[in-house]
Design brief:
By secondary structure, the chain is α+β, with helices and mostly antiparallel strands. About 15% of the residues lie in helices and about 40% in strands. The relative contact order is 0.18.
């Protein structure tokens, strides 16, 4: 995995190349603002980017992994919203194959949107590889946040009234 940490700046990055596009994800851990994650797409000499929260970055990583399973249909729409950013992701298809079209709207910027397109790659491997790298970068122990895995059922069972089935 192409993943390194720049000690001087406190930035961690991961990279992936899919269908001629280069993707870079930066995590700025020492930055005291909400936009700690920067998603960068490079294609044909152009650069597209969207800054987001850690939770927003994790959402993208999880969504790419979910789509790589191949169970979603073309046209399905996914949405993420937090206090600062809203994302609308749509699975689309063109002559080159499947891709995820992500529109990012930042609060306070009006109708201005940033668009990123993530191609699926061969046998959806592009989504799987990039999603995995994003999740590893943003779920790393250096953040002090770990996934909670319950040892027993956290919620009490719902008891049905005797007359209901």
């Amino acid at each position: 995995m192409a993943h390194w940490r720049a000690q001087a700046t406190g930035v961690e990055r991961c990279y992936e190349r899919v269908e001629g596009k280069s993707f870079e994800v930066e995590w700025w851990g020492s930055v005291p603002t909400w936009d700690k994650v920067n998603l960068i797409e490079r294609s044909n000499g152009k650069v597209f980017q969207c800054k987001t929260s850690i939770a927003g970055g994790r959402w993208i990583g999880k969504l790419l992994c979910q789509l790589s399973m191949g169970t979603s249909e073309i046209g399905v729409v996914f949405r993420y919203t937090d206090d600062r950013i809203s994302k609308i992701a749509t699975m689309k298809e063109n002559t080159r194959g499947l891709y995820l079209h992500v529109q990012c709207f930042v609060a306070g910027e009006g109708a201005k949107k940033r668009i990123l397109c993530f191609p699926a790659g061969s046998t959806l491997k592009g989504w799987a590889d990039l999603g995995t790298k994003i999740r590893q970068l943003l779920n790393a122990p250096h953040q002090g946040m770990q996934q909670f895995i319950p040892e027993r059922q956290c919620f009490p069972p719902i008891l049905m009234k005797q007359g209901m089935k």
